[in-house]
Amino acid sequence: MEEPVQVQVKRVCMFWFCHIIGVFISNELCTLDEKHRLTWPEVKGGVFYILYNFLPFYWVHLFISPQGIPKRRKFLFVLALCSSLCLSGFFLCPPQAHGSPNLLMSDRLSLPICSIQMKLSSSLPLSLPQINCVTFPLPGEGPEQQLLKPNEWSYCDYFWTDKKDPQGTASVAGFEVLLQKQLKGKQMQKEMAEFIHERIKIEEEYAKNLSKLSLSPLAAQEEGTLGEAWTQLKKSLHDEAEVHLKFSNKLHSEVEKPLLTFRGDNFKKDLKKYDHHIADLRKQLASRYAGVEKARKALADRQKDLEVKTQQLEIKLSNKTEEDIKKARRKSTQAGDDLMRCVDLYNQTQSKWFEEMVTTSMELEKLEVDRIEWIQQHLRQYTTLRHETDMFNQSTVEPVDQLLQNVDPAKDRELWVKENKTGEVRPVDMDI
Amino acid sequence: MEEPVQVQVKRVCMFWFCHIIGVFISNELCTLDEKHRLTWPEVKGGVFYILYNFLPFYWVHLFISPQGIPKRRKFLFVLALCSSLCLSGFFLCPPQAHGSPNLLMSDRLSLPICSIQMKLSSSLPLSLPQINCVTFPLPGEGPEQQLLKPNEWSYCDYFWTDKKDPQGTASVAGFEVLLQKQLKGKQMQKEMAEFIHERIKIEEEYAKNLSKLSLSPLAAQEEGTLGEAWTQLKKSLHDEAEVHLKFSNKLHSEVEKPLLTFRGDNFKKDLKKYDHHIADLRKQLASRYAGVEKARKALADRQKDLEVKTQQLEIKLSNKTEEDIKKARRKSTQAGDDLMRCVDLYNQTQSKWFEEMVTTSMELEKLEVDRIEWIQQHLRQYTTLRHETDMFNQSTVEPVDQLLQNVDPAKDRELWVKENKTGEVRPVDMDI
């Protein structure tokens, strides 16, 4: 796709124009007398006239017509024709042509003027190999390809070829690899959610145990300031439990749940749509390719037929008339046209597939970027919650520290003695 | 124990001295003629003479002697005697006397001169009540007692009386209450250790769960920078587990174990020693008290006997001679001496018990202060460990944060594409 289509079309038109002018001039030069001039009715309209001159069958007419054309005219005709061909051929050869016009040109030029051997083999050498119906340039051939998005390691640059399945003969489209990556990403987020869920369960268990222990009556009989500190210490376990419960709740709502619901079921459906769309285009491409192959075979058959018939006529092997030759020639031309049409359709379809590949792989690339960033953001939420939790946890110890600082044995003794004293009056000596 | 013993002794001596002088003078006044003078041999020595005058038996002698003493002399004697008693009695009444001399004084003064009714009941009113063999001042009576250790709510000031068991008749020594407090303290520390042990179990469970989860293969297939961050996140759970395990180990070695081993078995033995020691002293006191009671009863018996015998002699009921009276009198006096001795012993024992109570209750007080401070210190260790743990826990999140910050979708794409690309060469148009 080095040249825009419009340029190519232009060139082809120019070729034909020159060629027609040349033939016309040649014709006029050679058939000045009315006798030998080709009459329009004979050439079935202008279009056919033009087509008739695509291949130098006129030459044949010249040399096998019953009325001999003077050698001088023949020579002039040939001269004019060749000149026009050379001139118009110029238009057909773009600076960076893949070589087919070249090939065509060389094919034509190398044909000995006296030979009517047409070196058209049944397997017309297509200049480029197809892999799974996709046309790639030959290694070393063609212009150097620049990455569509250099330095970006973009999906649209690296997944053109199908991946061979190492074990079997089947192969996987490059696009399929990209799609699988996205599906795997979905699986990853599901597993991450599961992991977080497990963490939540662990936290809830821990909180439950701490809460239960905080209700323990152990050493509840400790009184005074020490008793207060101890009571607060036990209570702090409940506070810790609350912190961990809060942590687990937030983990659930801010990390686990989002991980589970990010890109819900619609995501897989969307991916499937992409998958089917691209697969359909490949299928279309395959069928177009089949069409090309079919047309190519048909053309080869037609050419063979014409060759055979022409040979037969020359050696007067059969009673084939010129009419038969013309018919075979026409069919051959038609087959050639068909082939061109099929190749065009194929190229159109490949272009369509190409565009879709680029667009969709860019979409997938964006999806992957989004996925990574989204997960990064939510894992950061996890670490934030962890930080918070540890800080809140630290604060549960503060009141315990405070009360421990206030522990006062003297005060405790006062409290206890006031509560438990038996009598303040001291004994005295007995007296009689 | 408001007055030093020496002062009391002085007073008693003064009393006796005056009393003796008085009696002597009286005697001289009344028995000028040799006939009626008490002869020394009759009174069996000076001491007995003194004792003889402790109670006004001389009066008896005066009034029942066969030789009548002129009324005038009797009158003078009585006057002199009373004066001397009043004078000497002054010495017996300290500014804050408990009242026994007073009582004694009033007893003597209230006796009608003509009455020989001796208001000596068999239960000689001891001026102070005993509670469980311990002698306390009557409410309102006696000098005001100051606390031994004012403003300190010291054990030695508040546990003198036995505590009545609300249900039964038994009572518990104040010291016993103090002892129970110490035993309860030991129970408290044991229960605290148990609580810490439960916490340790919870922490170990938590650590085990975190560690197990950290090994989970969930989302292990995530690659690139995101995969690294995720791997570190999982690993951080193991780091957290380590932190909690370290916490539980330190809880065990720095809090639980000390709580279990603080004041080992020896402590209870020491307490038992105190218990037995004090209990023994109380038993001694009780037996001394029993001795006093016994001596008192014996004295009362003797007095009764003497009274009876004297009455009998007066009404010439029996053939009891003066010798019998004297014998009875002597036994009475001896019983009085015994009583005095028993009272002394009782008071000594009570003093001993008193001293031991003060000393030991101070010991227990110190033990309690030590216990409270020790527990305070170790509970502070608990809170310190909690602080540490939360800090270490926070640090386990740092590397995760770091790697999350490094998450780079572009880099991850590069890595993945390099690994998974299928082909870079882009398709081209088919040409024939």
Automatic annotation (TrEMBL), chains A, B:
Gene3D superfamilies linked to this entry: Arfaptin homology (AH) domain/BAR domain
Keywords (A to Z) from UniProt: Coiled coil, Membrane, Transmembrane, Transmembrane helix
Keyword Transcription on entry: no
Pfam families: FCH, WW_FCH_linker
InterPro entries the record matches: AH/BAR_dom_sf, F_BAR_dom, FCH_dom, GAS7_F-BAR
Statement: the UniProt record of this protein carries the keyword Coiled coil: yes
Domain (F-BAR): residue spans on this chain: 151-412
SMART domains xref list: FCH (SM00055)
CDD domains reported for this sequence: F-BAR_GAS7
Coiled-coil segments on the chain, per record: 296-323
Highest taxon of the lineage: Eukaryota
Gene Ontology terms describing biological process: clathrin coat assembly; clathrin-dependent endocytosis; neuron projection morphogenesis
Transmembrane segments: 12-27, 47-64, 76-92
One Gene Ontology cellular component annotation held by this UniProt entry: plasma membrane
Protein name: Growth arrest-specific protein 7-like
Originating organism: Echeneis naucrates (Live sharksucker)
Species lineage: Eukaryota, Metazoa, Chordata, Craniata, Vertebrata
Gene name of the encoded protein: gas7a
